[in-house]
Amino acid sequence: MKVLVFGGSFDPPHVGHTALLVAAAQRIRPGRILIVPAYHAALKPSPRAAAQERLRMLRVGLIPSLPERWRRIARIDTREMLGQRRVYTIETLAALKSEHPDWELHFAVGSDGAAAWSLWRAPERLARICRWWTARRPGAAAHRFPPHFSVIARPMPPVSSTQLRADLAAGRDCSRGLHPRIAALIARRGLYNAGLMAALKAGLKPGRFAHILAVRKLAEALALRWGEDPRRASWAALLHDCGRLIRRRRLAAYARARHLRAPRLGEIIRRQPGLLHAYVGADLARRRFGCRDQEVLAAVRSHTLGAPRMSRLETLLYVADAVSEDRTHPHAAALRWLSFRDLDAAFAQALSAKLRHALEHGRWLHPLSVSLWNRIGAKP
């Protein structure tokens, strides 16, 4: 009997999963379909949703969305989830083959997983134990797949779990990527920080919340201009001031309790504790809002003081925060214009404007910002 195995994190399950599963089933014509959700997929970070939540989503959304002929033969195999550990695919397939030596195993995997084949455990044995299928997702890199993969020539929806998680947190409409029952379950249970926007709106002053939206708008536009991912830029912009959810007088205590590595922490606490909101924000973004994108976290962390070496995303967010449309300082409009023509020059001038503002108001200059100016901005 032909058996189609479909594994993954399903974090969350989406219409792309359904499309790939149906396309593979139509090619293979299996007698049984096994959907195998991972407790923790070997090549991915820890899932954002708990195992039981992902299992619920599969049951209420993915299986009911299948055509009736495939729905009748589809089952969820929970062996990896029940193991509560990182399980390698070779373990699961070897167990299935041992339990059912008469089965002809077929495995369907997304294009990213197929392209990362060399990183899988025991790839030679995997290639022998079953047949492998994949399909190309629009918008993904032009992957080259190993020769033993059969590529299904059918259009796939341009959707990924990573994009959906960011869009859910940003409060965007995800109805095209999620089955209605899954979307309803996510909203009902508050998964993937679908309530981030509500948390920011409820916990921040109206002007601060408006600033965050203005920064997001500019960050997305700058990302498109400079070849960055606008979704990541949006995520960073939404999170950049989440540290202000912690009251100013509690920032120092939070930083000490969490052992945050803010440069010259003691001096910041004595001289200008408000600067801690960026470092507290990066910690909150990770702990409370589940952001595991290290570049996004770095951008949140460096959006106030900068950093010795800044990525394009960090530079972009620093500029967007400094010159968003809600900013009223005299240089804001000119720097916004410049940021679309020379981002590095806009960054240098934004840093210069911040330093001048601090001097004019008799504020302490953090050595990190001064050294950054000496390195990139000061003219010989």
Please give a structural write-up.
The structure is a single chain. The chain has 380 residues and is of the alpha/beta class. It folds into two domains: 2-158, HUPs (Rossmann fold, 3-Layer(aba) Sandwich); 206-370, Orthogonal Bundle (Hypothetical protein af1432). The chain is 52% helix and 7% strand. The protein is built from 20 helices and six strands. The protein has a six-stranded parallel β-sheet with strand order 3-2-1-4-5-6, with helices on both faces. Strand 1 (2-8), helix 1 (15-28) and strand 2 (32-37) form a beta-alpha-beta unit. Helix 2 (51-62) packs antiparallel against helix 9 (180-189) and helix 17 (312-323) packs across helix 19. The longest helix has 20 residues, at 206-225. The chain is elongated and about 80 Å long. The termini are far apart. The relative contact order is 0.09.
The number of distinct helices, counting runs of at least 4 residues, comes to 20
The pLDDT mean sits at 91
The CATH class of the largest domain turns out to be Mainly Alpha
Domain module tally: 2
The neighbouring-strand order within the major sheet is 3-2-1-4-5-6
Bin the strand percentage: 5-15%
Quick overview:
This protein is an alpha/beta fold and 380 residues long. 52% of the residues lie in helices and 7% in strands. Strands 3-2-1-4-5-6 form a six-stranded parallel β-sheet, with helices on both faces.
